[in-house]
Amino acid sequence: MGLLASQLGMTVGAITAIVLVLIVWQSIWKGIAMWKAARNHHLAWFIVFLVVNLLAIPEILYIIFWSKPKKAKEVEEKAKKPKKRKK
């Protein structure tokens, strides 16, 4: 890490601090996104968050665009519809 620090003109301590901040940043977003995906039964998203590490970008996009819970009215209407039976 000393070679990288010298090439970037930074100290090893500064690089370590940046890496730690990025780890905390990603962990917070990943935890929130995985929790929301699990609560919304989005298995594919949960697996993506578990496997992919891109500085929390997929997690943030999921939280903003796809994690909104369904409105109570939509859930009630879906529950009222009769289920189709397979013959």
Order of helices and strands: HHHHH
Q: Poorly predicted ranges (pLDDT <50, ≥5 residues)?
A: none
Overall outline:
rod-shaped
User: How many helices does DSSP assign?
Assistant: 5
The structural domain count equals 1
Rg calc: 21 Å
- Distance N terminus to C terminus? 65 Å
The main sheet comes to: none
Helix content: over 70%
Structural class: mainly alpha
Strand content: under 5%
What report would you give on this structure?
The chain is mostly helical and 87 residues long. The relative contact order is 0.11. 71% of the residues lie in helices and 0% in strands. The protein contains 5 helices and no strands. It has helices at residues 2-8, 12-39, 43-51, 57-65, 72-80. It is rod-shaped and about 70 Å long. The protein has one domain (2-80).
What secondary-structure arrangement, pairings included, does this model have?
Elements lengths: L1 H7 L3 H28 L3 H9 L5 H9 L6 H9 L7
Question: How would you sum up this structure in a few lines?
Answer:
This protein is an all-alpha fold and 87 residues long. The chain has helices at residues 2-8, 12-39, 43-51, 57-65, 72-80. The chain contains five helices and no strands.
